[in-house]
Amino acid sequence: MALLAYLKSLFILQLLMGFVFVVSGLIINFIQLCTCIIWPFNKQLYRRINCRLSYSLWSQLVMMLEWWSGTECTLYTDQATVDKFGKEHVIIILNHNFEIDFLCGWTMCERFGVLGSSKVLAKHELLKVPLIGWTWYFLEIVFCKRRWEEDRNTVFRGLERLKDYPEYMWFLLYCEGTRFTEKKHQISMEVAQSKGLPMLKYHLLPRTKGFTTTLQCLKGTVTAVYDVTLNFQDKQTPTLLGIVNGKKYKADMSVRRFSVKDIPEDEQECANWLHKLYQEKDALQELYNKEGKFPGPTIIPRRRLWTLLNFLFWATLLLSPLINFACGVVVSGSPLLIIGFILFLIIASVAIRRLIGVTEVKKTGSSYGNKEAKKQN
C-alpha cells in the first residue's frame, strides 16, 4: 500500500495522466466540431453522438476519483428513489461547499448512466476554459453571466432547446450561485436579514430566479427535483489536487426526491418552496455535524469498469507514441531536441495545473455581495 501511495504521488505519472486527458480532450473537441454538420439534418443524432463523446472525456475525471484515489460515495436515500435514477429527466439541487462537489455529482451520474447527458447552469467564464468549456458548448450547456437582465433571453432560449432532449438528463443547479465561504456567508445573511428571509447557518441564500426559470422552461420534460446535500466524513476538505495525488476521501450524499407536481407553479410560491428547502438542508447539515451521518438508509452504488477501460483506451492510444518519441529524443543526443522536449513537459505541467486551478476555492472568485449581485433576486 505504501508503494502504491508513493507511485500515485510521482509527478511524472500525474503528468502522463494529465497529458492523456488534455490530448484526448482536444481530439474529442475536434470530433465534436465535425459533428456540427449533422445538426441541420438530424439534431437528435448529433446529441446522442456528443453525449458519448463527452462521456469519454468526463469519465476520465470520474476514473481518477473512483479508481485512482479510491474515494467512496455513500448515498443516504431509499431504494424507491434509487430505482428512478437514470430513468427520468430531473433537476439536481446541490450544495456548493467543496472543490470536488461537481466530481462527486458526476460519479453518481456515471453509475446511473447519465454522465454524458448531464447538464448544468454554468457561469459564462467557463465557456473560455479549454476542454471543459468547449465540450459543454457542444453539449448545449446553458451559460449565464449571473446578471439576470443580460441572461434572461439566453437562459430561456437555452432551456427551451433542451425540452426535446433524447436522453435522460440530470440538470445540476447550484442555487447558492457561488461556493460557500465565511465572508460570502456573512454578506448573504445580511441580505437575508434585510429581506426578511430565513437565516441559514451552513448555506448561502439561494438565488431563486435560476431555479424557478429552469423549472418553468422544462415543465413537461422534468418530472422530479433531487435535493442533494454533500458532506465528507471526518470533516475532510477534499481538493482536486488531493485526488490527483491519490488521496482517498469518503463522501456522504443525502438525496431526497420531490415530484414536480408537488412544487408550486406560481413563481413566488416556488421561490418560497426553495427557501424552505434550504432551511431543511441546513437542518440536515446540522445533524450531520452532530452525528457524523445523515438520517435514513444507506446505499453504495458500485463503481463501473467503463471509466477505467475508457482511460486505458486513451492511455494506450496516446502514451505509446509519446514514449517512443521521448526515447528517440534521448537516443538522438541532440541538445536542441532534448531542451525542446523538456520545455514541452514544463508547458504541459503548467497547463494542467491551471486546469486544476479552475476548481480551487481560493481561485474561483465571485462578485457575490456587490450591489449588482444583490439585485438578482
Automatic annotation (TrEMBL):
<keyword id="KW-0472">Membrane</keyword>
<keyword id="KW-0012">Acyltransferase</keyword>
<comment type="similarity">
    <text>Belongs to the 1-acyl-sn-glycerol-3-phosphate acyltransferase family.</text>
</comment>
<feature type="domain" description="Phospholipid/glycerol acyltransferase">
    <location>
        <begin position="90"/>
        <end position="212"/>
    </location>
</feature>
<keyword id="KW-0808">Transferase</keyword>
<feature type="transmembrane region" description="Helical">
    <location>
        <begin position="337"/>
        <end position="356"/>
    </location>
</feature>
<dbReference type="GO" id="GO:0005783">
    <property type="term" value="C:endoplasmic reticulum"/>
</dbReference>
<keyword id="KW-0812">Transmembrane</keyword>
<dbReference type="GO" id="GO:0008654">
    <property type="term" value="P:phospholipid biosynthetic process"/>
</dbReference>
<keyword id="KW-0443">Lipid metabolism</keyword>
<dbReference type="GO" id="GO:0003841">
    <property type="term" value="F:1-acylglycerol-3-phosphate O-acyltransferase activity"/>
</dbReference>
<keyword id="KW-1133">Transmembrane helix</keyword>
<keyword id="KW-0444">Lipid biosynthesis</keyword>
<dbReference type="Pfam" id="PF16076">
    <property type="entry name" value="Acyltransf_C"/>
</dbReference>
<dbReference type="InterPro" id="IPR032098">
    <property type="entry name" value="Acyltransf_C"/>
</dbReference>
<keyword id="KW-0594">Phospholipid biosynthesis</keyword>
<protein>
    <submittedName>
        <fullName>1-acyl-sn-glycerol-3-phosphate acyltransferase gamma</fullName>
    </submittedName>
</protein>
<dbReference type="InterPro" id="IPR002123">
    <property type="entry name" value="Plipid/glycerol_acylTrfase"/>
</dbReference>
<feature type="transmembrane region" description="Helical">
    <location>
        <begin position="311"/>
        <end position="331"/>
    </location>
</feature>
<feature type="transmembrane region" description="Helical">
    <location>
        <begin position="12"/>
        <end position="39"/>
    </location>
</feature>
<keyword id="KW-1208">Phospholipid metabolism</keyword>
<dbReference type="Pfam" id="PF01553">
    <property type="entry name" value="Acyltransferase"/>
</dbReference>
